[in-house]
Design brief:
This protein has about 475 residues and is of the alpha+beta class. It folds into 3 domains: about 5-160, Beta-Lactamase, CATH 3.30.450; about 220-305, Helix Hairpins (Orthogonal Bundle), CATH 1.10.287; about 315-470, 2-Layer Sandwich (Heat Shock Protein 90), CATH 3.30.565.10. About 55% of the residues lie in helices and about 15% in strands. The chain contains 10 helices and 12 strands. The protein has helices at about 5-60, 65-80, 155-205, 220-270, 280-305, 320-330, 330-335, 355-375, 430-440, 465-470; strands at about 85-90, 95, 120, 130-140, 145-155, 315-320, 340-345, 350-355, 380-385, 390-395, 445-450, 455-465. The strands form 3 sheets. The chain has a 5-stranded antiparallel sheet. Strands 7-9-10-12-11 form a 5-stranded mixed sheet. It has a two-stranded antiparallel sheet with strand order 6-8. The longest helix is centred in the first third of the chain and has 56 residues, at about 5-60. Keywords: ATP-binding, Cell membrane, Kinase, Membrane, Nucleotide-binding, Phosphoprotein, Transferase, Transmembrane, Transmembrane helix, Two-component regulatory system. It is found in: Cell membrane. Its main location: membrane.
Length: about 475
Amino acid sequence: MKISIRLKLIIGYILFGIVGFILISSFTYKNALKSTTKSRAQSLYKEATSISQSYATEYYGNTLSAQEMKRILTSLSSFMDGEIWLVSSAGKITLSTDTSRVGTALDQFDVTDFGSHNYVIGDFYNIFSAEYLSVYAPVTTDYTVRGYVLIHLPMSAIESDALNLLNTAYLTYLFLMLILLGCMLLILFTWIRKMEKVKKHLKDYHNGNITTPITFSALDDISDITAYISYMEQRLGSLEEDQRNFISNISHDFRSPLTSLKGYIEAMLDGTIPPEMYNKYLKIVLTEAKRLSKLSESLLELNKTGSKGALLDITDFDLHQMIRSALMTFEGQCKEREIHFKLSLTGQKLFVSADMSKIQQILYNLIDNAIKFSFDQSDIHIETSIKGGKVFVSVKDHGAGIAKEDLPKIWDRFYKSDSSRGKDKKGSGIGLSIVKGIIQAHGENINVVSTVDAGTEFIFTLPLADREKL
């Protein structure tokens, strides 16, 4: 079942509201009741102390009559909405705002039950039928405790105050939830409108209706996504163009030798080429056939290097011997154009741990490119060095170079830069893609530095063989 982001947000908002309500109901009420009880107890204790130090002292000093004392206590009681007792040191109620309690003996009365807070909560020795907050203050005259002032307040009144605080918390929470809802709806509306625009754009692109890039003025996550989408579309468009160019180049590279083969064979068959010239033209046919074979093998290799499952045959071999052998293959081409190789190798031998055949292919590709794009009567420098357990190999030519805007694309499978800058226009443009694929399969790196009309340098790394590390 597909759940839209809107429904997820609504469900999340409702769950957030329910959880918040439960937390407020549980913790806020408990904390409010505890805080209110403590506050009222402190207030009542101050009142009880005031009564004990003034009116009760005068009462026990016989300067205040019992009737007058009763009137004062009743007045204070109505103001506090509670009961006030005057209890003798023996635990007998001598005065009370509730006359029915006068003379009642509190057999279990013990001031230590009040603890350090000077108040207790309960039915006060079974006197009350409900819970009360009871506070006491001793009445002292001449350093002698004559009795106690007790004030009792029903817990229902304190709970009512706590509920008022809870209701205030509910209203505040509701107000905040409404603000949050408004903000969420505003953000959701803006976000959905943008997402609908993005979805429509992607649908049009999927259906082949190429549209202008989508942009948003605000800097947010969706703007970043649209920027990535626009970049992806540009790259796809570029890859499609490169693919068309690649197919065009490959078609041309296949067509050219096939046309030659067809022409020479037909000329032999119809007698245009006499038998005594067969040997010369058969060599040309063989050369063109080798070109086709090499091109086919390059295409197959390109497909292999694009596969993550390609296996490597890792062995230790002498890289310097491989370089020298590879250079001998190109002696003929270099002699014709007076191109010379300059070697700067680290030692007579240098063993690396890699796939020998594939590294040989890398060297052939890079050297072939260097010759192809070098100026006549120039030098090609090949250098090896060791740094941090890695072997660095450099192939540097002095020739046409690569334009700055072409550098990021030279590794693409379907990209071929302007072949007219090279002396040899027969390349398929897939060699560097193969090179990078092989290097990455080894877990190594390859970089290029180039300046137009100055030359190009390719530098790649290989793992040093263990024997070289000893």
